[in-house]
Amino acid sequence: MTLILLAIMLTAVACVIAWYLATWALPVMVAVETFRFIHATEAGFLLSALAAAAMALLSVGLVLLALFKAKSPILCLLARAVFVIPAMIAGYAVVHGVTHDAIDSAIGLKLLCGTAGLITGIAALINLNGFGELAPQG
Asked: Within its chain, how far is the Cα of 60 from the centroid?
């Protein structure tokens, strides 16, 4: 029983952390994959890090550009999905990493991690809508 309460408490802490870091899921995932790809071509560490930083900024810039300039609601929805899906994956992974040893039930673990991923995705969407309110109305 104590282990279950500890898992619930750690899940709540992980969700709060993921809530505040949800905005950074897309650029971090893009940066990590870009770094791995460039570094695998035997480029130096500094060049790989520079390329990763540039791609992370470009990914956020493209999403914000699509939100600010798009007239089509389908394009806006697609831009939001591109931003929210990595946050959902990150929220799922954070909670799974914290609680995978504490919860024996595979179904309970999937439900808990899925809920955390959904909450983190909602947090990213709320943060992204805050950016979208900065767009000129017209």
From this structure: 12
Query: Cα separation of 75 and 82, whole Å?
Result: 10
Taking phi first (over 0 means left), then psi (-120 to 50 degrees means alpha), and beta for anything else, what does residue 137 get? beta
Structure tokens, 101:
């040893």
Instruction: Tell me the per-residue pLDDT of 44-100, one tens digit each, with 9 for 90 and over.
Output: 999 999 999 999 999 988 888 887 887 888 888 888 888 888 889 988 988 888 888
Distances (CA, A) of 44 to 9, 51, 98: 42, 11, 34
Burial 121-136 (b: 16+ CB within 10 A, else e): bbbbbebbeeeeeeee
Which pTM value belongs to this model?
0.72
Contact between 91 and 116 (Cβ < 8 Å): yes
